[in-house]
Description:
Strand 1 (18-22), helix 1 (27-39) and strand 2 (43-48) form a beta-alpha-beta unit. Helix content is 38%, strand content 15%. The chain starts with 17 loop residues before the first strand and ends in a 7-residue tail after the last helix. The strands form 5 sheets. It has a 7-stranded parallel β-sheet with strand order 3-2-1-4-5-7-12, sandwiched between helices. It has one domain (97-373): NAD(P)-binding Rossmann-like Domain (Rossmann fold, 3-Layer(aba) Sandwich). Helix 1 crosses helix 10 (264-276) and helix 7 (120-128) runs parallel beside helix 8 (183-202). The longest helix is centred in the last third of the chain and has 24 residues, at 359-382. The protein is an alpha/beta fold. Nicotinamide-adenine-dinucleotide binds next to helix 1. Its EC number is 4.1.1.35. It catalyses: UDP-alpha-D-glucuronate + H(+) = UDP-alpha-D-xylose + CO2; UDP-alpha-D-glucuronate + H(+) = UDP-alpha-D-apiose + CO2. Residues 19-289 form the NAD-dependent epimerase/dehydratase domain. One of its GO terms (cellular component) is cytoplasm.
Amino acid sequence: xxxxxxxxxxxxxxxxxxxxxxxxxxxxxxxxxxxxxxxxxxxxxxxxxxxxxxxxxxxxxxxxxxxxxxxxxxxxxxxxxxxxxxxxxxxxxxxxxxxxxxxxxxxxxxxxxxxxxxxxxxxxxxxxxxxxxxxxxxxxxxxxxxxxxxxxxxxxxxxxxxxxxxxxxxxxxxxxxxxxxxxxxxxxxxxxxxxxxxxxxxxxxxxxxxxxxxxxxxxxxxxxxxxxxxxxxxxxxxxxxxxxxxxxxxxxxxxxxxxxxxxxxxxxxxxxxxxxxxxxxxxxxxxxxxxxxxxxxxxxxxxxxxxxxxxxxxxxxxxxxxxxxxxxxxxxxxxxxxxxxxxxxxxxxxxxxxxxxxxxxxxxxxxxxxxxxxxxxxxxxxxxxxxxx
Length: 389
Ligand SMILES: NC(=O)c1ccc[n+]([C@@H]2O[C@H](COP(=O)([O-])OP(=O)(O)OC[C@H]3O[C@@H](n4cnc5c(N)ncnc54)[C@H](O)[C@@H]3O)[C@@H](O)[C@H]2O)c1
Ligand SMILES: O=C(O)[C@H]1O[C@H](OP(=O)(O)OP(=O)(O)OC[C@H]2O[C@@H](n3ccc(=O)[nH]c3=O)[C@H](O)[C@@H]2O)[C@H](O)[C@@H](O)[C@@H]1O
């Protein structure tokens, strides 16, 4: 635990606070809990339906933290204890959501309920009780870039004003309703507007975070090992699963879409700055991403194959990638964001935050983790039973 006095960006002492973290048992939540417990004196009321990813923080041997984290197994859809926890806390952080693209077109109702309806009471309790809220939205609220509607060979596509995604200037461009992929982005957009309106009309102190493809250890699950065999996680876990099993990586519609990936540990630094600098963070929407780590999905696959071979000692795959149609991979109603580059002006100005880790370095540490965590389990799961004589 940090024994020294923590100061904010303006040199003022940061007093220890109690944080109600909803969705604390997920990928981002687990890293945020670790950071808060190891570097600050704040207390965490961790709310989730699962706690596997934060078990190491809850076990009795982590004595130094035991009094600063409490796990509450609560489904926020229907649990009257939620308001009490929000009242006990100085700050609520809401991370709870269905946020894997394979669900958006196949479980659109669950997606809309999870990202909009279930978040409503959280916003209401914070507003009514004058509690600060940090709400997790997504870069998907931007949808497609303006540039994607220009002719393929238009030189305007190179002009940043047609692709750079800015919190206070870019429009939100989604596909038609039958493209149910956008159920998630649309629900997130509406909850952002509601949070913003609570701020404008009722004085809610809020910050909205728009993550741009945060990746790292503990993201999602490996199908058939710590998640359902038929489940489709986000791209990092899909490609990790292929590499661990020695299969080609599946490129949806040729892997032409572009993403900027940021290392989870860099991104968590930004969230801690928001937590401890309310005067600079309240009332703002922040892009949090790494504009320097842009690749096509195909380039990501090739880089992951190269890094995995290096960290595992396994020979490189003869055929590293294979094409698959989005209909085959995700089903009817899938659509895609073409390109996602975050404008960093606002987060730079308000919090002075910049990401540090290159894509190669973050893949090296993440794939080392994946190999250590899963290689043996995969070997056992795929071993052929020895025929009895
Ligand atoms: N990882 C990213 O790069 C990324 C990008 C954009 C947006 N986000 C947003 O950040 C947030 C966290 O994402 P993540 O990657 O950690 O996802 P995650 O799925 O790992 O974590 C979400 C957690 O919320 C919990 N949860 C869901 N519904 C709940 C309910 N009804 N009651 C209690 N707990 C519930 C889940 O059990 C899970 O542990 C989400 O809101 C997501 O939309 C993440
Ligand atoms: O992480 C984010 O910032 C946001 O974007 C993600 O959306 P997306 O980037 O499309 O999700 P991934 O599953 O990580 O897919 C990235 C790209 O890889 C492709 N992909 C995925 C998996 C695979 O095996 N092969 C493959 O080519 C997808 O089609 C897509 O083009 C999710 O919607 C959210 O977690 C989040 O809100």
